[in-house]
Design brief:
The complex is a heterodimer of chains A (124) and B (401).
Chain A (H helix, E strand, L loop, with lengths): L2 E5 L3 H13 L3 E5 L2 H10 L4 E4 L8 H10 L8 E5 L4 H9 L4 E4 L4 H16 L1
Parallel strand pairs in A: 1-2, 1-3, 3-4, 4-5
Helix pairs in contact in A: 1-5, 2-3
Chain B lengths: L1 H55 L3 H5 L6 H12 L3 H15 L5 H12 L2 H8 L5 H13 L6 H7 L5 H14 L5 H9 L6 H11 L4 H7 L5 H13 L6 H10 L3 H14 L5 H9 L4 H14 L5 H6 L6 H12 L3 H11 L5 H22 L5 H12 L12
Helix pairs in contact in B: 1-4, 3-5, 6-7, 7-9, 8-9, 9-11, 10-11, 10-13, 11-13, 12-13, 13-15, 14-15, 15-17, 16-17, 17-19, 19-20, 19-21, 20-21
Classes of the chains: A alpha/beta (124), B mainly alpha (401).
Chain lengths: 124, 401
């Protein structure tokens, strides 16, 4: 079981992702904005973070950068989950330090597999 | 006499005062009425939202179970949702509609099946012929989200609908359904007095992907520059390697500057090495600065080391964006590019070139600094060790097989 911090302002997607990841055995801490997710990640470092880009307050990319800049959370793998599908958006996601980038519409099953893959890669 | 005239002379003033008072009272009444209406509307909306939330709350977990790994559980959830009474269905329907455009795979298939069983799909197909613009547009959007291919012929017809909203919704739906036969008609609409906004057509075409390469190449020879520009742009976005020659031809000889600029950008995105020489020719010749700037950027996208001398020569270009993009592109060419920048940074090519080279190298240094942050993250490992000791997570990284 891994601990997942999830930042997603869309309640339907947030509930869906949380349900799917809990189903495969992860502990999920869902948040509707980036600031709460960041605060939670700093208080209790998760095994992985899943971040939407466009959220109220700070964006998922900013959260990712903040995680990377803090030695305590710099090692947390990050998956960006967003509707922004342009090549430049994806490039910006990886430039911010993301480990993987998933574009909406997404398959919940594929998301769960990607989480597993990223965690396994970090573990290796 | 004066006793008679005095009240008469005061009459207009009294009349004006009472008129002002009446106007003020009417205005106050209108404001009060408006306030009451706004408050009532908000209260009613709040009641409706709470009622919907109350009704959907017990159903919501059932909806999420559609995404369950366990097929039996997912099937049971599908059956339960299909059997919901009308009130509960109406309460949970917005959440399902919202999910439609955001998910794909098995969950989308399950939702499509559910909508079919509940008659929502059939109703949407009927609504494509409704008199209401809103109903037609909503139906097109829903059928696009459901990837309902049977609706494509009618969606094609709706590309000529009198309402722009319906035309846009139909184009977006055809893109989501993946109907490649819609590419030609949609490109044609761009020429027909802009019946469809270019960004809508572009978005739909990108969704259609490589299957429409032939239509795009044909449209690259269209008489209307806007059609050519969009076709070339999309060839780049879908990375149509097989269309490289057509795009190079557009870069070399299209009469429209806009089309040539998009061709330069597209060649960078497509990534074929045969594009290096034509892009270098454009960068070096006395072309439009905007075109040369985009070509300089595209050479960086290609990442071909042989472009380094040509780009280095542009570091001293009087057009700021050409020199700036040349410097940024050199960074992307590996050692050859970095060596060219290092040479230029000490002033060999002049002060202007030195400034651009120094800026690019400084940005590269900052990026490198950011990148080394990750190997430094050993302190986080120590923290994780502590957590493992607490039994919070198992193994080096807790992952279920």
């Amino acid at each position: 079981m891994a601990t997942v911090v999830l930042a997603e302002d869309d309640p339907d997607i947030r509930d869906l992702v949380a349900f799917k990841l809990r189903q495969v055995g992860h502990e999920v801490r869902p948040f509707e904005d980036g600031v709460s997710a960041l605060t939670s990640a700093r208080e209790d470092v998760p095994d992985i973070a899943i971040l939407d880009i466009m959220m109220p307050g700070i964006s998922g990319l900013d959260v990712c950068r903040e995680l990377r800049n803090d030695p305590l959370t710099a090692d947390v793998p990050v998956i960006i989950l967003t509707a922004r599908a342009q090549e430049s958006d994806i490039e910006a996601g990886f430039a911010a330090g993301a480990d993987d980038y998933i574009v909406k519409p997404f398959s919940p099953r594929e998301l769960a597999s990607r989480v597993q893959a990223v965690l396994a890669r970090v573990q290796a | 006499m004066s006793a008679v005239t005095a009240p008469l002379s005061g009459a207009p003033a009294v009349g004006l005062t009472s008129l002002t008072t009446a106007a003020m009272l009417t205005l106050a009444g209108c404001v009060a009425l408006l306030a009451i209406l706004i408050v009532t509307a908000r209260v009613l909306r709040g009641v409706r939202v709470r009622r919907r939330a109350r009704l959907s709350a017990p159903v919501r977990p059932v909806l999420l179970q559609l995404a369950a790994e366990d097929e039996t559980l997912a099937a049971r959830s599908l059956a339960a949702l299909a059997a919901l009474d009308r009130r509960q269905w109406r309460a949970i329907e917005p959440a399902m509609m919202s999910l439609l455009g955001k998910v794909r795979g098995e969950l989308l298939s399950s939702l499509a099946r559910l909508f079919y069983e509940r008659g929502v799909t059939a109703r949407a197909v009927r609504d494509l012929r409704a008199r209401s613009i809103v109903r037609r547009a909503r139906a097109a959007t829903l059928l696009g989200d459901l990837a309902h291919t049977a609706a494509c012929p009618r969606l094609h017809e709706l590309l000529d609908d009198r309402s722009l909203d319906v035309r846009v919704a139909s184009a977006q739906a055809l893109g989501r359904v993946g109907d490649c036969s819609a590419a030609g008609p949609m490109l044609g609409k761009l020429a027909e007095n802009k019946k469809l906004p270019p960004h809508v057509v572009a978005d739909a075409l990108v969704r259609l992907g490589p299957g429409i390469r032939g239509d795009l190449v044909a449209a690259a020879g269209h008489s209307e520059p806007l059609v050519r520009a969009i076709a070339i742009e999309i060839l780049g976005l879908i990375k149509a390697v097989g269309a490289t020659e057509a795009v190079i031809e557009a870069l070399r000889s299209d009469p429209s500057d806009e089309v040539r600029i998009r061709a330069a950008r597209a060649l960078g995105r497509i990534g074929m090495p045969t594009a290096v020489e034509p892009l270098l020719t454009v960068v070096q010749a006395g072309e439009l600065p905007a075109l040369r700037a985009v070509a300089a950027g595209a050479l960086g996208d290609l990442g071909a080391a042989e472009a380094a001398p040509g780009l280095a020569a542009r570091l001293n270009d009087p057009a700021y964006h050409v020199a700036h993009n040349a410097a940024r592109s050199l960074l992307r060419l590996g050692r050859d590019g970095e060596a060219a920048l290092a040479e230029a940074a000490v002033g060999i090519l002049g002060d202007r070139a030195a400034s651009h080279a120094q800026e690019a190298l400084a940005i590269a240094a900052i990026d490198a600094e950011r990148r080394v942050h990750r190997p430094v993250r050993r302190r986080a490992e120590a923290h994780a060790e502590g957590r493992r000791a607490e039994g919070r997570i198992g193994g080096p990284r807790a992952v279920r097989p």
